Amino acid sequence: MSEDRATPPPARGMLGITWRQLPFFLWLIALWMLLWGQFTVLAFLTGLVAAVVVTRVFRLPPVALSGRLNLWYGLVFVVTFLVALVRGSLLVAWQTVRPGKLPGSAIIAVHLRTDDDLIMTHTAVTSSLIPGSLVVEADRDRRVLYLHVIGVDDDDDIDLQRKTVLGWEARIVRAVGSRAQLDIIREATVDTPRQGGTPT
Predict the structure, then answer these.
(1) Is the model's pLDDT at 126 over the cut of 50?
(2) Ordered DSSP codes for 23-84
(3) Average pLDDT over the chain, rounded to whole?
(4) 151-163: per-residue pLDDT in tens?
(5) Residue 1 pLDDT grade (very low, low, confident, very high; cuts 50, 70, 90)
(6) Is 40 exposed, middle or buried (0-12, 13-18, 19+ CB in 10 A)?
(7) Rounded CA Rg of the chain
(8) pLDDT beyond 90 at 14
(9) Is 41 in contact with 136 (CB distance < 8 Å)?
(10) pLDDT in tens, 61-109
(11) Angle (nearest 5°) at CA 66 between 7 and 164
(12) What's the burial of 83, exposed, middle or buried (CB within 10 Å: 0-12/13-18/19+)?
């Protein structure tokens, strides 16, 4: 009598899966270091432990990566992120100490253009790391991020905040998104090329 048993994947298959997940694994470590604001050996080691826990202990399904990486747009993303980080810090500091009325705040909804969990997560984390905005909820089914933002006084400021979030989505797609996602970004009607489309 034979028994039906799940056959474990061969070692070569496991090695292939591990290799495909390596960029995601490294990104988790980098994300951990960014969240703590420390680029030290200790931060790297604790990030390594956190990445192992997330990817191995919780037994989450493998993340389907696009298999595409554009180093140039990856560099563009990193540089623009660092500039936005400094700019956001200075703006929030100025809004705190400037005389006059307090800065306005709002909860805004941003409908993302691509339908991908990883892109949505990266966009949400990037937006939250920049001072002045924080993701308070994510609607996966409708691809909507809800953010609390400060420094908004009118509808134009709110529109600018939405376009900023869509700009981060576009940069991330250009760096690591699939060809199909890249086509969506390119076909989007936006006001500036940096947001991933053709200017009108």
Answers:
(1) yes
(2) HHHHHHHHHHHHHHT--SHHHHHHHHHHHHIIIIIS-PPPP---S---HHHHHHHHHHHHHH
(3) 79
(4) 888 888 889 999 9
(5) very low
(6) exposed
(7) 20
(8) no
(9) no
(10) 555 555 567 888 889 998 999 999 999 999 888 888 877 777 788 899 9
(11) 140
(12) exposed
CB 168, CB 83: distance < 8 Å: no
Q: Which two structure tokens, joined as six digits, stand for 8?
A: 């474990």
Burial 92-108 (b: 16+ CB within 10 A, else e): beeeeeeeeeebeeeeb
Q: How far apart are CA 185 and CA 49, in angstroms?
A: 35
Q: What is the pTM of this model?
A: 0.67
Amino acid at 86: V
Angle at alpha carbon of residue 70, lines to 67 and 71, rounded to 5°: 125
Tokens of 66: 């696009």
Q: Which helix (H) or strand (E) holds 150?
A: strand 144-150
pLDDT of residue 28: 80
Residue whose structure tokens are 């869509």: 166
Distance CA 7, CA 193 (A): 50
